[in-house]
Design brief:
It is a single chain. By secondary structure, the protein is α/β, with parallel strands linked by helices. Helices cover 24% and strands 26% of the residues. The protein contains eleven helices and 17 strands. The protein has helices spanning 43-49, 99-102, 151-154, 160-170, 186-197, 212-218, 229-234, 252-256, 280-283, 297-309, 324-332; strands at residues 3-9, 18-24, 31-40, 66-73, 85-88, 91-93, 114-115, 134-138, 143-144, 178-182, 201-206, 222-225, 239-244, 259-267, 288-291, 316-319, 339-343.
Length: 347
């Protein structure tokens, strides 16, 4: 039978979120029922709740940074048991048959992965996210949260962690490599922590020096203001990897000039507006302009294990659910250090 649970939902585009109830599906043979303890607020929640990325499904219960405890498992579940500490990230299903799924890249499922919210599941029903008290998820899209991570600081890793870990690993962040992180926000602060733990020399490129002390404490070796034109002159040809975590359009030519020959500028932030690019900034220096979208389930587990090993939880501000709308406005104003996390006991 279905379970009725409390949640916070956006009733329509750009409307304030409000408390409501939703139905969770019955626990199937391979499902786990999770008591959600904490849910992170990601900038992409705001993009979708306000239709910044296009038409969306309403009512919408956002949230794809979910940490909780298994309450019940289906008869066929082998990976988890009641009481296990688990997480759910940005997707809850995929076709599991295509080349990408078989390669552990479920986020790039040829038929389209099923988002944790603002999507339609294989059963034809809309999906609802983590701003709620419980969720039912297939065991194959559930990950284990290691004991070394508390659930509140682990929740943002299910998006911010994997979104930055995957491209840093793919593009070879390691000792001897110079990595720049554009933006020190919810994504950027985890990028700094992870790149530092991988052994790279880390530089933060931010609009101002307002967060410089924080950046250095998080593991950055250097910190520069991009509002200063001298930054681009002095750092030309410096970096092997630049990871852009911001949701605003960049002057790609300027940032590409900071790469070494053969370097890569990788985007994980997703601006709502189109961007322009002069291709000569790529051709000169054999440079790469790339994108990256979260990671597969196995890689997400690897990321959590890595973060536990290196004690890399997110820097959070824990809030009650009745402050979600206030938190959205503060995210847009860059007034959070560095991730809001909802205590779902307050929903």
């Amino acid at each position: 039978m279905t379970t009725t649970v409390a949640a916070y939902a956006a009733p329509s585009a750009k409307a304030p979120l409000e408390r409501t109830t939703i139905e969770r599906r019955p626990v199937g043979e391979f499902d786990v029922l999770i008591d959600i303890k904490f849910a992170g607020i990601c900038h992409s929640d705001i993009h979708q709740a306000r239709e910044g990325w296009g038409e969306a499904i309403f009512p919408m219960v956002p949230g794809h940074e979910i940490a909780g405890v298994v309450a019940e498992v289906g008869s066929g579940v082998t990976k988890f048991k009641a009481g296990d500490r688990v997480g759910v990230g940005c997707m809850v299903d995929s076709c599991r048959e295509c080349e990408n799924c078989e390669a552990g890249q479920e986020q790039h499922c040829v038929r389209g992965n099923v988002g944790t919210y603002n999507a339609v599941g294989r059963d034809g029903e809309p999906t609802y996210g983590g701003y709620s008290q419980k969720v039912v998820v297939d065991e194959n899209f559930t990950v284990r949260i290691p004991d070394g991570l508390s659930l509140d600081v682990a929740a943002p890793l299910l998006c911010a962690g994997i979104t930055t870990y995957a491209p840093l690993k793919h593009w070879g962040a390691a000792p001897g490599k110079k990595v720049a992180v554009v933006g020190l926000g919810g994504l950027g602060h985890m990028a700094v922590k992870i790149a530092h733990a991988l052994g790279a020399e880390v530089t933060v490129l931010s609009q101002s020096l307002r967060k410089k002390d924080d950046g250095l404490k998080l593991g950055a070796d250097h910190y520069y203001a991009t509002s200063d034109a001298a930054t681009f002159e002095n750092l030309a040809g410096t970096f092997d990897i630049i990871l852009s975590t911001v949701s605003a359009p960049l002057d790609f030519g300027a940032y590409l000039s900071l790469l070494k020959t053969g370097g890569a500028l990788v985007n994980v932030g997703a601006p709502e507006e189109p961007v322009a690019l002069n291709l000569f900034s790529l051709i000169g220096g054999n440079k790469t302009l790339a994108g990256s979208m979260i990671g597969g389930i196995a890689e997400t587990q690897d990321m959590l294990d890595f973060c536990a090993e290196h004690n890399l939880g997110a820097e959070i501000e824990l809030i009650e659910a009745n402050r979600i709308n206030e938190a959205y406005e503060r995210v847009l104003a860059s007034d959070v250090r560095y991730r809001f996390v909802i205590d779902t006991a307050t929903i």
